[in-house]
Write a structure and sequence with these properties.
The chain is about 25% helix and about 25% strand. It has helices at about 5-10, 20-40, 45-55, 120-125, 185-190; strands spanning about 55-60, 65, 70, 75-80, 85, 90, 95-100, 105, 110, 115, 130, 130-135, 140, 145, 150, 155-160, 165, 175, 180. A hairpin with a 4-residue loop joins strand 18 (about 175) and strand 19 (about 180). The longest helix is centred in the first third of the chain and has 19 residues, at about 20-40. About 30% of the residues are buried.
Length: about 190
Amino acid sequence: MSKTEKQKMLAGELYRPGDPEIQADIAATKDWMVCYNAAFAASPAERRALLAERFSHVGADAVIRPPFFCDYGFNISIGDGAFMNFNCVILDVCSVTIGHGTQIGPAVQIYAADHPRDPEPRRAGLEFGRPVVIGCNVWIGGGALIMPGVTVGDDAVIGAGAVVTRDVAPGTTVAGNPARPIVSRSMASK
């Protein structure tokens, strides 16, 4: 039995984003985002209930300040006490996991969506995704970009404006474009 385009998308395989089932999911998410982003003045509990309507998991006391933007929502899992500030974007064509207690600054963008490097599949309109995993107690500074397939380990720090193209080890601080580990002077002198 062949896979549907949505099944291919969720599995991280090449898929056609114009597929009617996928387009229906995108339309439903657009409608949901209109409701969620209009709930700016709602209580955190009311906004959390809206998140739970769309996300695969919403942990206790998780907060996402509107406006917020995503492709589907149902591929996003956010842990207990996690926080996302205004204007964050998650392109969740496959799973995006945000761990407990993670703090995400404004205008952070997390991309699971990717495109073939070979021009022929791109020309044919094919796309794919690679899951993104952000561990527990991570701090991501405003305007940072997390690229497809990246895993950020527990207790890591991502500097504001960083472009994270590779995995970040637990407890590591990275900054820059592309993001690289930062060695503090106190660490360097040891």
